[in-house]
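Design a sequence for this backbone.
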């Protein structure tokens, strides 16, 4: 029993370590994309500042416009530096998760293909799978069984002792005797042992229920986090597309003198923020899957037979795919 529990704890620890590594891996990918978004924003604002200064040289832009454009460059530099700091921390977390030196150089391969969470594994199926596969459930049930057996032994120890004796007389007759022994005074020690065993049984049953409820809650939270993350990817993708289109409109209007130079700077920052939000949303979506698998207590291969749907390939690492049922899913 103790060996089995130790093996179960070891398997669970390995599974949790794998989940931590996956989470750190996708966090690095998200941080890399945020750096790219910040770098692109810096390039755009520098180009815009050059345009403003060229217009200022011919008297079509004021000193305040130039100052604002230069301030935009400073803000973009600060944003890029902050994104780079976030990437450095993400790389250190990944090194920590895989047992490498914290400051070791990280070379992360693209995530490649990604599949949506299988439709067959709805919330009820996830909960049932967790209750069937999580080792904590089996260990709690074993604790209840052990406590019940200990109670049976304590009750048996209170019963009077009995012995059966038999002998054959010289005449060939059997003589059988039953000897029963019981203490004449109350056996308080035995009574206390029984009561203690009963308390342990009740405690073990309560622990089993708490363990089960805790696992159900963990699965429900992880499941809804995944669904929310999938929805967030679609919303972030739409916001990024709208921001990019709006920037083009603002740039064209600015050339025609219909909008101020500051509005273009604001549109550039809106694009950067939308792209950064999209990167975070996609990373959160990818992180949510291993967390849900960990909550269920199954590896990816154990859930593979449930997965239905095509993998998405293409030059873009991230994209949003709308399935036949109308749901939008973030994919790589």
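Sequence:
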């Amino acid at each position: 029993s103790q060996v089995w529990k130790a093996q179960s704890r070891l398997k669970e620890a390995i599974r949790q370590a794998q989940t931590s590594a996956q989470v750190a891996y996708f966090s690095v990918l998200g941080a890399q994309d945020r750096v790219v978004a910040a770098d692109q924003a810096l390039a755009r604002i520098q180009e815009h500042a050059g345009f403003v200064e060229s217009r200022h040289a011919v008297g079509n832009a004021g000193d305040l416009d130039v100052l604002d454009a230069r301030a935009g460059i400073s803000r973009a530099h600060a944003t890029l530096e902050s994104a780079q700091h976030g990437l450095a921390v993400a790389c250190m977390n990944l090194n920590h998760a895989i047992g490498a030196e914290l400051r070791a150089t990280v070379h992360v391969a693209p995530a490649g293909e990604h599949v949506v969470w299988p439709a067959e594994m709805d919330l009820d199926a996830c909960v049932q799978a967790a209750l069937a596969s999580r080792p904590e459930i089996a260990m709690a049930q074993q604790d209840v069984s052990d406590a019940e057996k200990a109670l049976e032994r304590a009750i048996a120890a209170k019963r009077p002792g009995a012995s059966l004796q038999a002998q054959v007389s010289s005449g060939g007759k059997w003589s059988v005797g039953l000897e029963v022994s019981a203490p004449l005074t109350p056996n308080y020690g035995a009574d206390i042992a029984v009561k203690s065993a009963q308390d342990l049984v009740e405690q073990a049953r309560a622990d089993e229920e708490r363990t089960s409820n805790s696992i159900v809650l963990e699965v429900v939270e992880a499941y809804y986090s995944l669904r929310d993350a999938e929805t967030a990817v679609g919303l972030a993708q739409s916001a990024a597309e709208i921001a990019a289109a709006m920037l083009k409109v603002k740039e064209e209007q600015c050339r025609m003198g219909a909008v101020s130079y500051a509005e273009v700077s604001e549109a550039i920052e809106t694009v950067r923020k939308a792209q950064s939000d999209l990167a975070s949303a996609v990373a959160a979506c990818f992180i949510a899957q291993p967390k849900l698998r960990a909550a269920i207590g199954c590896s990816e291969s154990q859930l593979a037979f449930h997965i239905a749907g095509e993998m998405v390939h293409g030059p873009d690492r991230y994209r949003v795919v709308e399935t036949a049922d109308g749901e939008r899913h973030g994919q790589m």
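DSSP finds seven helices and four strands in the chain.
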